[in-house]
Each structure stands twice: as structure tokens, then as C-alpha cells.
Design goal:
CATH superfamily of the largest domain in chain A: Dihydrodipicolinate Reductase, domain 2
Keywords (chains A, B): Oxidoreductase
GO molecular function (chains A, B): oxidoreductase activity
Oligomer: homodimer
Structural class of chain A: alpha/beta
Strand order of the largest sheet of chain A: 14-13-12-11-7-10-9-8-15
Largest sheet of chain A: 9 strands, mixed
EC number (chains A, B): 1.1.1.424
Strand content of chain A: 15-25%
Helix content of chain A: 25-40%
Radius of gyration of chain A: 20 Å
Protein name (chains A, B): D-xylose 1-dehydrogenase Gfo6
Shape of chain A: globular
CATH architecture of the largest domain in chain A: 2-Layer Sandwich
Number of domains of chain A: 2
CATH topology of the largest domain in chain A: Dihydrodipicolinate Reductase, domain 2
Pfam family, one (chains A, B): GFO_IDH_MocA_C3
Chain lengths: 365, 365
């Protein structure tokens, strides 16, 4: 099996989307970073800096102290959110990365679109489907490119897994398991990020914040969209009052392939995606968190091969793709319409949890 | 963590149920083996022989050639099914092990009960809930002890996992994943076992034959029963026409704990049980097949410990427990009523799959 695998997995971390030589890039895409929570500071800003195709030039946040600290640390221009939205320093950036609480994505994306800037918006796209639709429409109306921050889609391990599935290496996919959990209050810590507990700002917690990973990653690797879903949510602890602390869900893909998913904001850390086919199992474990090395295993004919590969900086890959596609004038795969698909499913999962029955995803759902 | 774990996992393979000294057993329980399919020949007969508390003395099967071969090989008495049922050699055995196609359990169990013999019946108990109820009633009416062949319940790895959960080592259980698959037609091979494809004989395929493992094992380790279930079945290949080739199901346990399960008779071999709690994850992988070593891993505070332990012969453990409890005049845990719980759930899963909605398990369901 190892020989056949090698054919697929040689140059594991290759960027199959890259046509421009990073060494030839003199003017990387200048990015304004909107929202300086834990992820933006610890991961996005370093990722933007590492990527040859991007550089951060402007930062903003509702927390003026955070803006000042980050501006000094990264030697970038710090502005107020009002200044960002008004376009006061619009000549200092080509693109806007929006990493604010979900319910505030729309206001920043709309402002950036009106400024004619390219946009990378974090997922989930907004706090509700309707607002997400408005967001996508704003970008379309302004004719600006919109990418959505599905960092799994530019992760080499996920792309190689998808390659193997597409090549039929696993035979027909039979079913999928995915689990992702963390002790959110312990692992993230900072109060700055606790907007996830406010349903008005987040639109939900375990499903919106974590469920989107198993959901979007299975959509990506299977190359199709769920047709019917069933979800259950549960809240045990006072800290999570008003939002979902835990969730389980089944995504029914075309052909009867079910993805059985669990997510939790308050459980022992777990991060695993397992695709079982008639001929092989493909396992990512760890799978989903930016802060862990990815594991990639293939089981075929009873033999398990743990693939040893160079770990990448996941957010560098994401921003490299973002910057590259803009410079190459190529479209994004995870665009607004793709992200709306997740929003519809998340909405259907909350509906399913409330109604106690499965919910079909109509063409126009 | 390893110190705390050691307290629970020392003497990993201890038989916590054993009070009799195997060396003191002069007269082991004499077992008549009914049904000489692959499992009985490859696993049950060797297990009975290895166990100090049991010995095989009589075998029967509808296949006279198999009877003759096995009788010679194991130096036991071979009889016809009629002879077994009529009690013609009833003085040569104390107990009857029934490993025939599901829909024929009842006839053999009833005969054995009428002979006053102790019974170990394979799971699932019968092909339908009604017949399973009749089976349990026959044993109760005859006042004979009935154990059901849940070999996972006497497996040390499963018992230690349950011990850890009971001791609160994992905190509160949040959710469970379980998967079990094989290429049935390839891995088992023998035509002798293909009754599993006949719905009249089996009552179903993927769910009945394999689904019972994730179902019963989660019941056992969680120490509770599902209150509501949702299942989906699917058949792709002609060989499985009339039965379920693949199935996925969600078992809703009290307190909102969901077990997300997948099983297949036609997928790459998989065998995994994963319990995620607020404080730890407990993983059996491989978990379910008699023909593989079990793996046992504990993840707590982000640290994974793979427990190294002596592998047991799983069927020896099962028969040792069966013989021991009879000799010690102690009851069985996996008894007929316990097994009826599985039958009700399996029935509800098929109903759920047919109706396309979750099914509640009533007290009297």
C-alpha cells in the first residue's frame, strides 16, 4: 500500500493552487485586520506576516488598548473602528480581514465592500442566515472578492485527504465520524473572546463556533452538500446559559452517506475526522485546531500507515491562498455562496434541535 | 496522570467477578454447542476448552459433515439437532450454548430449558422482539439460568473502561462515538455463515449482527439505557438485497448523552469506541472484534496514555464467566431481560429508519 500512497502523498505540503512564485512578489496584498481577539493576535497576524503574499498594515478593534498594543508589536497602523469603516486610511490597505464577533461581520464587510476592498471574513459568516445573505449581497453589489476563513480547506492534510477520496483510493465512502471539543473557558481564557457566550453576538456557541469545522470540512472533502440534517444541543453549565454548550449532529450527504458529528465547548479536547470507505479509512487526528499538529493515517487492507509530513502554519497557508488568488486574479473556492451553505445547515441544525426531528435542506432553504 | 491511572488499571485483566479458584474446579460445566458456524468453531470451542470452568462435551448442527468433523477434532459427542432437542443425550451436558442463526435460537433454547439446562444464547437474542420475549419467558417458566453472549462485557478492557467512568475519572460523559465495520463477505467467507443475508433467519444484517456491539457496549459502560433512538439503514450491493448493508444510528442516553454509531458489513474494517467526558477521553481501538488485540487509550489534560496490557482470549473470558457463575450459583449480568433491551432498541432503530424519524423507547416499548 505504501507505494500507491506515495503516489498521492509525495510533496504532501505542496500548494496545488499556487502559480505565482512567492519570491517574485514585491507588493504583497496589504491587509487591514479588524478584530484583535485571541485568534487574530496569536494566529492571523503571524500567519499574514509569514505568508509571502500578504502583509498586515492596519489593525482595529473596539478595544483601544488592544489596538495600541498590537500596533506597536507588529509595527502597523492602529485605527478606531469608525476610522476603518469611514475609509479614513483606505489607501493603506488592499484587503480587509474581518475577525470580529459573528454578528458584527456584516457592518465591517459592508464598509470594506463600499471601499472596494477584497475581503476575508471569518466563519461562520454571520450570526444569522439573513445577515449572512446581506453580507454576500453587499460584496456582490460592490463587485469585490469575498473569501471566507475556512482554514481547513487550505490545510495540506485536508487537501491530501480530499485528493485520496477523489482518486477513489478509499472506494465508495460509507460513513464519516467527526468530533471536535475543547474546554472553551479554560483553553481560550481571555475575556476578550467571551462574546461566543452571547447569542446575539454569536448566533450560537458549540454549533456555530465549532460545529462549522466538521460541517465545512466534510462538505469540502466529500465534495457535496448535506441534503438533510438532524441535530441535538444541550447546555449543562450556567456559564453557557442561552447558548449551546454541547451538540451532536448527523449530516446526510447524497447517496446516503452520513457524517456523525459531535462538538463541545466544555469537554476534554478532541479533534478527529474519520472517513470510512469500502476500501480504506482515512483519519485526521488531530484534525481541526490551529494549535496542534495534524495527524494523517490511512488504513487499507487492514494495514495502517501513519503518514509523516512537514507541519505547516495553518493560517499562513490560508492567508497565502488569499493573497495569492488576489494577486493572480483567481477566484476563491470558499466564497460567500459556499459559506451560505454552512449557514443554512447550521440554521437547520438549530431548527432540528428545537423541533426534535430531521430537517431537509431545500434548494432554496 | 499515569499514577492516578495505575490505581484503576493495575491488574488490568483481573476477573473482578471471580470468587472460585480455577484450580479447585474438578467438574467444569459440560457444554453442548449448538450451531457450528465460523464463530463457534474458531472461537467458542477453543474458548470453552481454555476456560477452567467449562468443557465442551456435545456438538450439533444442521450440517452433519460439520458435526462429524468437529466431533473428531475436539473429541466430543456429535449428535443431530433432533437428538439434541429431544434430550437423547441430555445427561452428557449441563448447559447449552446456542450459536445458530438468530431465528432458530428460540427452538433450541426452549428445548434446553425444558431439559432444565443452563443456557448461553448468542446475541442478538432472536430475529424479532416477540420471539425474544418468548425465549426469555421459556427460560423463566422452566426456571433455568439464561446468559446472553455479550463477550464485550467480560472483556477486561471494556470492564476497566467502565470502572474509570464509574469512578468519575472522565468527569461527566458528554458524548460517545462508536464504529464497527467489516467486509463481511470477504472476512468471514464461509457459506455456512451467510444466513446473515436472509432476513427471515437474521432479522436484519448490519444493525442486528454488528450494531448490537456499539449498542450493548455503550449500555454496559454507561450503565444506562437509551431513551430515544434514530437510525438510518442503506443497501448498495445486490448481495445485501433484503437486508441492511450499512447503518448509522444515534442512541440518546439519559441526561442528553448521545452515542453516534456507524456499522457496516461492507466497508474497510474498523472497530472503535470513544467516550468523551468533561475531564478525559477513553478510547478502545480496536474495540469490538474477537480476532484483534484490543487497544486502550486515555486522554486527560491533553496527555494521551496508551495502556499496555496482556491480551486475553475474549471467548475464554466469556465462557469462564458463564461456567463460574453457574458453579458459584451467582446470577448473570447480561441476562435475558438485559438482552431484551437491545432487541427493543434494534426494533426501534429499524422503525426509525423506515419512518424517517426518531423513536422513543417507552417503559413498555
Amino acid at each position: 500500500m505504501e507505494d500507491a500512497l506515495a503516489d498521492y502523498l509525495d510533496e504532501f505540503t505542496r500548494r496545488d493552487w499556487q502559480t505565482l512564485d512567492p519570491d517574485d512578489v514585491d507588493d504583497p496584498v496589504r491587509v487591514a485586520v479588524v478584530g484583535l481577539g485571541w485568534f487574530a493576535r496569536e494566529w492571523a497576524l503571524p500567519g499574514i506576516a509569514r505568508s509571502a503574499f500578504t502583509e498586515a498594515t492596519v489593525v482595529t478593534d473596539v478595544d483601544a488598548d488592544a489596538v495600541e498594543t498590537v500596533a506597536v508589536e507588529h509595527d502597523v497602523r492602529g485605527v478606531t473602528p469608525d476610522e476603518l469603516r469611514s475609509g479614513a486610511v483606505a489607501d493603506e490597505y488592499d484587503a480587509v480581514y474581518v475577525a470580529t464577533p459573528n454578528a458584527t461581520h456584516l457592518v465591517y464587510v459592508r464598509a470594506a465592500a463600499e471601499q472596494g476592498k477584497a475581503i476575508l471574513c471569518e466563519k461562520p459568516l454571520e450570526a444569522t442566515v439573513d445577515r449572512a445573505r446581506e453580507l454576500v449581497a453587499a460584496c456582490r453589489d460592490a463587485d469585490v472578492p469575498l473569501m471566507v476563513g475556512y482554514r481547513m480547506q487550505t490545510d495540506p492534510a485536508v487537501r491530501r485527504l480530499r485528493d485520496l477520496l477523489e482518486a477513489g483510493f478509499a472506494g465508495d465512502v460509507v460513513h464519516v465520524h467527526a468530533t471536535m471539543s475543547q474546554t472553551m473557558l479554560g483553553e481560550l481564557g481571555s475575556d476578550h473572546d467571551q462574546w461566543r457566550l452571547d447569542p446575539d453576538l454569536s448566533g450560537g456557541c458549540a454549533l456555530m463556533d465549532i460545529g462549522v469545522y466538521p460541517l465545512n470540512t466534510t462538505r469540502f472533502v466529500l465534495g457535496s452538500d448535506p441534503v438533510r440534517v438532524s441535530g441535538r444541543t444541550r447546555t449543562e453549565h450556567e456559564a453557557f446559559a442561552g447558548v449551546d454548550e454541547h451538540a451532536t449532529f448527523r449530516l446526510e450527504y447524497p447517496g446516503g452517506v452520513d457524517a456523525m458529528c459531535t462538538v463541545s465547548q466544555n469537554a476534554q479536547h478532541a479533534s478527529r475526522l474519520e472517513v470510512t470507505g469500502t476500501d480504506a479509512r482515512l483519519i485526521l487526528d488531530p484534525a481541526f485546531y490551529e494549535r496542534e499538529d495534524r495527524g494523517f493515517a490511512v488504513v487499507r487492507e487492514g494495514t495502517r500507515v501513519d503518514v509523516d509530513f512537514d507541519q505547516v502554519h495553518q493560517i499562513e497557508e490560508e492567508f497565502a491562498y488569499f493573497g495569492h488568488q488576489l494577486l493572480a486574479e483567481e477566484p476563491f473556492y470558499p466564497d460567500g455562496d459556499h459559506a451560505l451553505g454552512d449557514m443554512r445547515v447550521l440554521d437547520a441544525l438549530y431548527e432540528s434541535a428545537e423541533m426534535g426531528r430531521a430537517v431537509a435542506l431545500g434548494d432554496d432553504a
